[in-house]
Amino acid sequence: MERQHGTRRTFPIQLSCRRLPFPQSSQLNHGIQTAYEFAADAGGMERSRYFGFSKDLYHLDHFLGMFGNMCGDLVNNQSHEVLEARELEPGVQLVRVRVVGPTGRSGDFDFLLMRKDLGRKAGSWMVKRLLKSKS
User: Fold this and answer.
1) What pairing do the DSSP bridges indicate for beta strands 92-100 and 47-48?
2) Residue ranges of the domains in the chain?
3) Phi, psi for 41 (deg, rounded to 5)
4) Per-residue pLDDT for 6 more than 50?
5) Would you say domain 8-132 falls under CATH 3.10.450?
6) Rounded alpha-carbon distances, angstroms, from residue 52 to 23, 71, 105
7) Which of 62, 22, 80, 16 is nearest to 51 (CA)?
8) Could you give the angle at the alpha carbon of 77 between the alpha carbons of 72 and 82, nearest 5°?
9) Using one digit for the tens of pLDDT, what is the confidence trace for 84-94?
10) Can you state the angle between helices 60-70 and 30-37, rounded to 10 degrees?
């Protein structure tokens, strides 16, 4: 995998990770809401595999609860670093991020990014799946 810090493809990840340490900012759960805005399948009526299993994410509240449960180390993280990024196929990227969680424990997360084809976010890199890395 190649390191790609600060590129457009890692922008949704960088933005979400920077916002997640501040869930109690002037806007409650602003970091998780930012992640929701960059979730490829959020807001639609189709089921999503964002968290690795089939789940409806048509409403922010559904995303809020799952994000806190499945990605707790990202919420209130002390720091984050993009470790690697690679193209799996045209328009699909895998990005691994290491975070230091609120308790000081570090963990890696894999973000599967896809380019949005249609709609108001056409051309943007969106997160299709976010999973805790097993390696």
Assistant:
1) unpaired
2) 8-132
3) -105, 5
4) no
5) yes
6) 24, 12, 23
7) 62
8) 100
9) 989 999 989 99
10) 110
